[in-house]
Specification:
With about 250 residues, the chain is mainly β. Helices cover about 10% and strands about 40% of the residues.
């Protein structure tokens, strides 16, 4: 099932996606959906970020080639950092480049969406706690990341966490193609099978640190090939079996 969050003439709602048709879901998308009976087409709605998480937990250096391109070692355990919920935007919303940075990079990623409250969950039970998967861009002010020595500011600007276009609940995330294009030119081309720390391990690790709530998002890491984006460009990230997330780039 594909779960979207949309703006339509009557407001904002969750909906399941069936081709060009959307079926409105009452309240929230967790558990068994309760449908309102309202139907829309894609032409009737605007896709929003498919979820508004209480927190976004990101994992750094989780592809060996990406770690190597910056001269870093692969960490023995997941390298975790947080992005604020206010950094989240949806498909086609603009990534806004802050004046404080001269080097902002794209980072295409597979994102995990949590479906129930969990704490200290073992990897073997992780799948039951996952609602589904979406596409993410861990936008990063690379110069500020280097200058600060920690990543809160560099990763936390408003608009620095595009998510979408929807949540796919029925995909096996273990070996999916992931590709990033900037203005149609391929920049990243990899597979999720190359993740150093796999998704069940990430869920166990993160839930051992903090309680995860329904809708919380784990960004699983970016492959090699990250690079700068500038005003006027467009970034598209495609994950096999899920879809494509596209965002224009604008100066703030």
């Amino acid at each position: 099932m594909r779960l979207a969050r949309v703006a339509h003439a009557g407001g904002v709602a969750f909906a399941s996606v069936d081709g060009d048709e959307l079926l409105e879901i009452a309240d929230h998308p967790f558990g068994t959906p309760n449908y309102t009976g309202k139907r829309f087409t894609m032409a009737d709605v605007r896709l929003l970020a498919p979820i508004l998480p209480s927190k976004v937990i990101a994992i750094g250096r989780n592809y060996a080639e990406h770690a190597a391109e910056f001269g870093n070692e692969v960490p023995g355990s997941p390298m975790m950092f947080l992005k604020p919920s206010t950094s989240v935007i949806g498909p086609n919303a603009a990534i806004r480049l802050p004046a404080a940075s001269q080097r902002v990079d794209f980072e295409g990623e597979l994102a995990v969406v949590i479906g129930q409250p969990i704490r200290n969950l073992k990897a073997a039970q992780a799948q039951a706690a996952i609602l589904g998967y979406t596409v993410a861009n861990d936008v990063s002010a690379r110069d500020l990341q280097k200058a600060d020595g920690q990543w809160g500011r560099a990763k936390g600007f408003d608009t620095f966490c595009p998510l979408g276009p929807w949540i796919e609940t029925a995909v096996d995330p273990s070996d999916l193609a992931i590709r990033t294009e900037v203005d149609g030119e391929a920049k990243q081309d990899s597979r999720t099978s190359l993740l150093v720390h796999k998704i069940p391990e990430l869920v166990e690790f993160v839930s051992g640190v903090m309680t995860l709530l329904p809708g919380d998002v784990i960004l699983t890491g970016t492959p090699a090939g990250v690079g700068q984006i500038v005003d006027g460009q467009s970034v598209s990230i495609t994950v096999e079996g899920i879809g494509t997330l596209t965002n224009p780039v604008q100066n703030a």
